[in-house]
Write a structure and sequence with these properties.
The complex is a heterodimer of chains A (352) and B (373).
Chain A: H1 2-8, H2 11-36, H3 42-67, H4 75-93, H5 100-126, H6 131-150, E1 152-157, E2 160-165, E3 177-181, H7 195-213, H8 216-226, H9 228-233, H10 238-261, H11 274-287, H12 292-308, H13 316-331, H14 334-343, H15 345-351
Antiparallel strand pairs in A: 1-2, 1-3
Helix pairs in contact in A: 2-7, 3-7, 3-10, 3-11, 3-12, 4-5, 4-6, 4-10, 5-10, 7-10, 8-10, 11-12
Chain B: H1 2-18, E1 23-29, H2 36-56, E2 62-68, H3 73-86, E3 90-94, H4 97-110, E4 114-116, E5 131-133, H5 138-152, E6 157-163, H6 167-179, E7 186-193, H7 202-210, E8 215-218, H8 222-234, E9 240-243, E10 265-268, H9 277-290, H10 296-314, H11 323-336, E11 338-341, E12 344-349, E13 355-356, E14 360-365, E15 368-371
Parallel strand pairs in B: 1-2, 1-3, 4-5, 6-7, 6-8, 8-9, 9-10
Antiparallel strand pairs in B: 10-14, 11-12, 12-13, 14-15
Helix pairs in contact in B: 2-10, 3-4, 5-6, 10-11
The chains are: A mainly alpha (352), B alpha/beta (373).
Chain lengths: 352, 373
């Protein structure tokens, strides 16, 4: 199915997709080799998993912002739903499934399901809105998710599972474990997220998004983005297609959240605030809306950059901001773009 | 310009000589952002101790390096890894609680010993044999506050305002509310706030006032506390105020009217007015360098380095030992030794890393901290 679809694609598009896969695989192999030969510093090795998670976030938000054309400012909310549901399910499974990679995979699936459900529920009111209104409402939902999780208590004892809101009224029996502790989040997480798992998740995310974009539905997304009225006039079900993009994106963000959370021993809802949502949006905007590879590279660069700037200590933040502005200007400058096109063998053929 | 360059080179040369065989001591702290006042204080306190110890010329010398974690667990792990690349042998953990929970797990996995100046949540040390705390663990602060307020008879009816999305605030509030009845206190009002709605406290204050609270307990950091004090004054509500160590720092906050904090009591292990030589010397040095009175975080940072110095001397450790060797020696020392520092006498550590020392009650008088006892 995939192959036939790819053959039918315009050649340029196919080349871009293969290039993206090739770059991701090459980067993975290089990092793995460097990591196993101890050539990679601990600082870089520690960032591999979060970078994978941010790359998946970038790909998933690109589906909403770049392909479907909706400005969403609450994407970190889905990441946090995924992080909390994924980690909680991993903890519940600890006794049953001893194989860590299997547990990680199951936790990510649970996370994706929960986040997809959250995306569906939020999508019902949100996707009826347009433009600025949609942006503001997604922002609000991101904050609502954060507040809910900050007041959510979830524990397990021999009697089963217990939930409570606002204050901890779970009254666990002896030997029980309070897993989600409101503002304290989850502590004592087993760090089972690995770089290969992150790589696999990223490849899955890319496959899902590319297949979706180059399908009938994907073309509908773009038709709606480019001219909503024309799309409606030819009978496209706008809400359905928007919902499809939104829920897919939320599910991927949820899986990324679970991967991210299981790389640290502790996680709090406040981590996934407005700033994180904006950071992910910056990946997408900097990489180019609709450009998956660009978003992936931007995610890597913007995660590594602050660490590499540590040597400048007090001027770090200032430099980061300046570099960000310069990058934004450079990627939007026609002359620089033309120059890049001239030296890029793939694009050149396209222009001829 | 040339003069500056030459002197910088000289400084570099001198410092690299002095640190010939020094223990590499690293820590992460919020040096920027909302919690920077704590990170900066702990780092400065530690730096003073390091300079003093190096100047004494004993067997133990330190090289200190702090990295910024912006009060975020992810950044803290990055900062920790950067320190590991630098060759850190002994760790000062992280200054704030959640980041320290994340770095403590790394400390445990890498077998690098950690002594955190001020990360106070219980999960920091839980299940880790090589992570120790210099400050009280949060639950103990709640119990100690209830005991102090009840024992001294400051009030019977108490209101609590706490931040319900903050680990620190919740940890203290939980044990305070739980133990308050034991010490004859009645919690008549309990209200919360969170990140994002921490600018207006009129609802919380009105509720405390209508329920007749004589004392308002504020288990939070100083920033929201400063607004609460200002708004209470605006509505002519003047109960007694009681804070914990997060309140420390309110007097050095920019743009804060110090008269608002007049009479505020807080429980903190460090009293900058203490008259013992050790504290006097530390406060004078801190003031000389940074132009302000050190807070408890600075004192914790200062004590951490001295505690390390004592433990390393007793263990006869040398700077060429690996982090893992030092870790085993430090665990042995810290669980058996008794330490005297500026944040308490007869400081001892339990095997789980928690510290035992006496809290000191303080009250703000004429814009300065004064001991209550």
């Amino acid at each position: 199915m995939t192959m036939r679809r790819l053959i039918n694609l315009k050649r340029v598009e196919a080349r871009r997709i293969y290039l993206t896969y090739a770059v991701v695989i090459a980067a993975y192999v290089i990092c793995q080799v460097m990591s196993s030969t101890k050539f990679l510093s601990s600082s870089m090795r520690g960032m591999l998993v979060p970078i994978c998670a941010y790359m998946v976030m970038s790909v998933s938000l690109n589906l909403v912002v770049g392909i479907s054309g909706e400005l969403s400012l609450g994407h970190a909310g889905f990441m946090s739903v995924g992080a909390f549901s994924g980690v909680a399910s991993a903890i519940l499974m600890q006794g049953v499934i001893t194989n860590a990679p299997v547990r990680l995979a199951l936790a990510m699936i649970v996370a994706a399901v929960f986040a997809a459900f959250a995306g569906f529920v939020i999508g019902i009111p949100v996707l009826r809105l347009k433009g600025d209104y949609l942006a503001i409402v997604t922002l609000a939902f991101g904050e609502i998710i954060k507040s809910l999780l900050n007041n959510f208590y979830f524990g397990m004892d021999s009697q089963g599972l217990h939930f409570s809101m606002l204050t901890d009224t779970t009254r666990l029996l002896k030997g029980g474990r309070l897993i989600i502790r409101g503002p304290m989040g989850i502590s004592g997480i087993q760090k089972i997220a690995t770089f290969p798992a992150g790589f696999i998740l990223l490849m899955i995310a890319l496959m899902v998004v590319f297949n979706l974009v180059n399908s009938r539905s994907g073309r509908a997304f773009m038709a709606i983005r480019d001219d909503r009225i024309a799309a409606e006039s030819i009978g496209l079900d706008i809400t359905k297609y928007k919902m499809m993009a939104f829920v897919t994106s939320a599910a991927l963000a949820g899986a990324a959240g679970a991967l991210f959370a299981m790389n640290y021993s502790t996680i709090v809802a406040n981590k996934f605030d407005f700033n994180t949502s904006i950071l992910i949006l910056v990946f997408v905007v900097l990489g180019g809306q609709g450009n998956m590879l660009g978003g992936i590279i931007a995610a890597a660069v913007l995660t590594i950059l602050p660490e590499k700037l540590r040597q400048f200590s007090d001027y770090r933040m200032l430099l980061y901001a300046i570099i960000l502005i310069v990058m934004m200007l450079a990627t939007n400058n026609d002359e620089i773009k033309n120059f890049l096109n001239r030296i890029n063998p793939f694009r050149r053929k396209e222009a001829e | 310009m040339r003069k500056v360059l030459v002197s910088m080179l000289l400084v570099l040369a001198v410092s690299s000589c002095a640190f010939g065989a020094a223990f590499k001591l690293g820590g992460t702290a919020p040096l920027t952002g909302g919690a920077a006042i704590y990170g900066m204080a702990a780092m400065r306190g530690a730096q003073i101790a390091v300079d003093e110890i190096n100047a004494m010329g004993g067997d133990v010398k330190f090289e200190l390096r702090y990295e910024d974690d912006t009060h975020d667990a992810e950044k803290a792990v990055n900062a920790y890894n950067a320190l590991k690349d630098w060759g850190m042998q002994l760790s000062l953990g992280s200054v704030t609680s959640k980041p320290c929970e994340a770095t403590a797990a790394e400390n445990f996995a890498d077998r690098i010993f950690a002594l955190t100046p001020s990360a106070s949540s219980a999960a920091v040390t839980e299940g880790k044999d090589n992570v120790f705390q210099m400050c009280f663990v949060d639950p103990n602060q709640g119990t100690a506050s209830a005991q102090y307020i009840g024992g001294k008879g400051f009030a019977k009816k108490v209101a609590v305002i706490w931040k319900n999305d903050d680990v620190y605030s919740k940890g203290i509030r939980d044990t305070f509310v739980e133990t308050a009845p034991k010490f004859g206190l009645e919690v008549v009002s309990e209200t919360t706030f969170a990140d994002g709605n921490d600018n207006d406290f009129s609802v919380q204050l009105t509720e405390a006032q209508t329920n007749g609270a004589e004392l308002v307990f504020l288990p939070m950091y100083y920033q929201p506390a400063s607004l609460i004090l200002a708004q209470a004054k605006a509505m002519d509500y003047a109960p007694k105020w009681f804070g914990v160590d997060g309140m420390d720092g309110i007097l050095t906050m920019e743009g804060f009217d110090k008269s608002l904090a007049e009479g505020v009591m807080l429980l903190t292990p460090f009293n900058s007015d203490a008259t013992d030589a050790r504290t006097k010397n530390f406060v004078a040095e801190y003031q000389k360098r940074h132009g302000e009175i050190p807070n408890q975080f600075a004192a914790d940072g200062y004590d951490c380095v001295y505690a390390y110095c004592q433990a390393l001397t007793q263990a006869k450790a040398t700077a060429d030992m690996s982090a893992e060797e030092l870790c085993a020696k430090m665990i042995e020392q810290f669980t058996t030794m008794t330490f005297n520092g500026v944040t308490g006498e007869n400081v001892r550590w339990a095997a789980n890393g928690e510290v035992t020392k006496d809290p000191k009650g303080m009250v703000i008088k004429d814009g300065a901290y004064v001991g209550l006892d």
